[in-house]
Amino acid sequence: MSAPLPGVGRTRFVVAVRASYSTPMKSISLLLLLWIGHAIAAEVAVPAGANSQLPGWSSDALGRPWLSWVEPRDESWVLRGAVAGANGFAEVTDFASGRDWFINWADTPGLALLNGRLTPYGLVYTHEGRGYALWVGQPDRFFHEDRSAVEHGFFSSAAGWGVWLDGQQYGNRPVTQAQSELRARVAGSSEAEVIVDDRVCDCCGTAAVALPDGFLVAYRDRSADEVRDINVVRFRDGVFEAPRRVHADGWVIRGCPVNGPAAARGADRVAIAWFTAADEKPRVRLALAPIESLDFAAPIEVDTAAPLGRVAIAAFGDGFVVVWLRATDDVDGAEIRYARFRADGTRVTEGLVTRSSSRRGSGFPKIAAVDGAIWVAHTDTSRSDGAPRIRVEIIAPESLDDPEAAALVQNNPIVRSITQ
After folding, report:
1. Is 388:379 a contact under the CB 8 Å cutoff?
2. DSSP per residue over 235-278, as a string?
3. Nearest of 30, 35, 29 to residue 1 by alpha carbon
């Protein structure tokens, strides 16, 4: 029996067990961590190379979950992906590559379902490194009209639209008079861009989700008084509705916190998770709203202990699962935590996923619901050789207290190996 994990009370014990089995595709190795009072988690092998990093999740036209990441190869960067399922990862694919990509811990390349197919996107340096552009499909196809030496990025997509943060004002105005805009356009269309919001936080990610009659995008707003709270905008009947505040946190900050919101859609609810440090009190919050009205209820305090934010969210069962980073007492220490909520906001369960780091290199954890379990992808920076590598942990259905999901393990070798 090993020593307790950092951040886990001394009264709890940890048992580490190696397990492996073969499938028609590959041999899969799992590290099972069982500790009393917390989740059962398993690490599943990822078909990624050395120095792999910046994970993301997306779904293809068949609804299959794809993990994406970047890794270096022959002095270039390669955006790769693999589909996740009951037997681990399959269909490993190289989607795009390039030498002059802008690789950033917060504004990451990924895959988007556009025009019925998984489409790669990312950032590329322009103007000899003085700016960078957003490309979608191929690295030489810029998604935006502006070609000035400024920043364009933090892309998200839904319902065939792409949205991004556009810094073109910084190219023709003094810095003190410029601000980033939230812009949108239909992918693969020659139609003009739309300014969704003309003043937003410069480097907090966006989060778009499809709705039955359009889509919604969540982002961090920026008022003239430097209040940076979370807004949503709905696209419906061919029109972008006016921005609305998810909750008036009142966080006044004179710079971008690089901590955008996460969004998910359930059966009849939309969920937004976010980080705020209003009144110098760090918090991770969750707000729920009916899809039809988008009237958000008062926020739920997900974590007030020592959260760092970097939130992710996924619809699961009759509610949602939120994942975030919390600081620990170790130098640069952090842990990835999870909590499950029902659609009415009731907290069902919570716990520790794994250890991580508060440094930028650990990036943002990303999650997806796969065959009745939650898969958590993140960049591991704890290796002895110092090289980052993608890791994926699975939170078993029993840990999420979901009987319906637990019933699915009979058809899922990976999750069944955790729970038996």
Report:
1. yes
2. EETTEEPPPEES-----B-SS--S---EEEE-SSEEEEEEEE-G
3. 35
| pTM > 0.90 | no
For residue 374, give the amino acid letter. I
Angle at 102 between CA 257 and CA 355, to 5 degrees: 55
Tokens for 225?
Answer: 């008084």
Tell me the sheet residues that pair with 161.
158, 186
Per-residue pLDDT reduced to its tens digit, 99-153: 999 999 999 999 999 999 999 999 999 988 888 889 999 988 899 888 888 899 9
Angle at 66 (CA atoms; ends 273, 232), nearest 5 degrees: 25
* Distances in whole angstroms, Cα of residue 268 to Cα of each of 233, 251, 302, 344: 18, 29, 21, 11
In DSSP notation, 98-142 reads: ESSB---SSS--EEEEETTEEEEEEEEEEGGGTEEEEEESSTT-B
Supply φ then ψ for residue 199, to 5 degrees: -150, 105
**pLDDT above 70 (res 412):** no
User: Which pLDDT does position 404 carry in this prediction?
Assistant: 65
The DSSP symbol for 5 reads P
pLDDT beyond 50 at 11: no
Would you state the structure tokens that stand for residue 134, as one six-digit string?
Answer: 């957003």
pLDDT of residue 167: 85
Phi–psi pair at 244, nearest 5 degrees? -135, 145
CB 266 within 8 A of CB 343: yes
Contact predicate 316/402, CB 8 Å: yes
